[in-house]
Amino acid sequence: MVKVIIDDIEVEVEPGTTILNAARKIGGDVVPPAMCYYSKLQGSGGKCRTCLVEVAAGSAADPRPMPKLVASCSTPVMDGMVVKNKTSERVYDNRAAVTEFLLINHPLDCPICDQAGECHLQDLGFEHGKEGTRYEEKRRTFDPIDIGDKIKLHMNRCILCYRCVYTANQLTDQRVHGVMHRGDHAEISTYIEKAIDNDFSGNVIDVCPVGALTDKTFRFKSRVWFLKPMEASCECTKCAGKAVVWMFGDEIYRVTGRKDKYGEIEDIDGKTAWICNECRFDKKDKTKWKIEGPRVINRHSVIAQNQYVVDERLETKKLTGK
Amino acid sequence: MPGGSSVPILPANLITKTAEGTDRLMTYESLAEGGFASGSMLGSGGFIVFDEDQCIVRNTWNFARFYAHESCGQCSPCREGTGWMEKVLRRLEHGQGHMHDIDLLAEINKKIEGNTICPLGDAAAWPVAAAIRHFREEFEWHVTHPDEAVKRNFGIASNHMPLV
Ligand code: SF4
Ligand code: SF4
Ligand code: FES
Predict the structure, then answer these.
(1) Do A193 and A252 belong together in one domain?
(2) pTM of whole model > 0.90?
(3) A156 Cβ inside 6 Å of ligand 1
(4) What are the chain A neighbours of B72 within 8 Å (beta carbons)?
(5) ipTM passes above 0.90
(6) Structural domain boundaries of chain B?
(7) DSSP assignment of A176-209, as one string?
(8) What is the pLDDT of residues A293-311, one digit of tens each?
(9) pLDDT digits (tens, 9 = 90+) for A124-142
(10) Which residue minimizes the CA distance to atom 1 of ligand 3?
(11) How far is A269 from chain B (nearest CA, A)?
């Protein structure tokens, strides 16, 4: 085990753990935001640069600070490392800059975006964004395209985190979509808009941190904060059948995987509970699901406003007064 | 410009002599003297020489265009930042810039530098930063003389004068 100090809090982790995961072990607001890293996807991370942190001391053996900010999701900890996240001005400054870079070509059409309310970019912009833009040029635009008959791709909103590419790579057997071109005209594309045809392709919607990939069966139906998330399960031959159904009255509006507080699909019985397309798109009938109870949405974004299960983090705040 | 297109550009007086007045040699150490404020790097060892009639803004735009095109698009600061710098420089060069664009450029490249996965971001940022540092009056001239800027270059610059 190695010891690291993050924002003056000491934590012990396995050697080889990344700074981000060490911070997640502490939890709370020590955790840097991560737009591209997804612990369930191999190789993800290092792209968006929102998780930059300052390393004030490299290790016990060599306590020199690192000259550059490092991406916490892809930098392993060393014994005696001292990391600054929320205690560092420099980190805040540069994270605000990364937020600005992510937003200069973003349409910010949240009022008509299905992701609004559970969007990581909204959270990031809320915390680190500026009120105005300094970008005077035309934003780059693409036409929305259909990926199969159930998924809509709004390339305008994409932040090129590559999560969906890794998902398609690791969950499905024939990946037909990927990143084309490079530089600021890079885009997610299916080769000639070919449908992704696989039972698990719908999971790209769950991993997408923004509203670039959305569920067409839920498109413009409601806003997420009007819906009640309920844990539900069903008998399914293809997947574990453990999902969250989003209900309005007695009707199921949409089905998603069970996401933890970092927006990642949870592990259930040691396996990541990805759900299959049939559960996601076709089972909109309440009788097909066994409703287990309300789902805790442990996020600080707008859905939490509608919450009827107490957030344990808010609870500790009340107890400790911090 | 010593070291190819990715290092800080220097005016003639700083290429022949360092800021302290000692002779500048063609070595890695000597060119690095003075840090980025008054020095540069030998980099690849390639040299680009501009005479006083060349347009620094156009040349900087040209480099920025190259880096925007070469950026692989994986990480956000480089992908968005190089494209942004290229667009601002294109506006400046074509007489559509504003005074605040110059500070904006300086700000953007400070935020790309060091925050990217690979050194392409740094390489894109340094020449722009240095061009503004040493040839700011030429950028300002492009803003104050938009009509002339599209017709002719800044011309004889004041680079024979020692920098303070
Ligand atoms: S992706 Fe997020 S920030 Fe972008 S329009 Fe949708 S809700 Fe707004
Ligand atoms: S479509 Fe979504 S998941 Fe895919 S790269 Fe873009 S933002 Fe990431
Ligand atoms: S989460 Fe670390 S770079 Fe994106």
Answers:
(1) no
(2) no
(3) no
(4) 182-183, 186
(5) no
(6) 1-47, 56-152
(7) -EEEES-GGG-EEEEGGGPPP-STTTTHHHHH-S
(8) 888 776 555 666 555 555 5
(9) 998 888 888 888 888 888 8
(10) A34
(11) 34
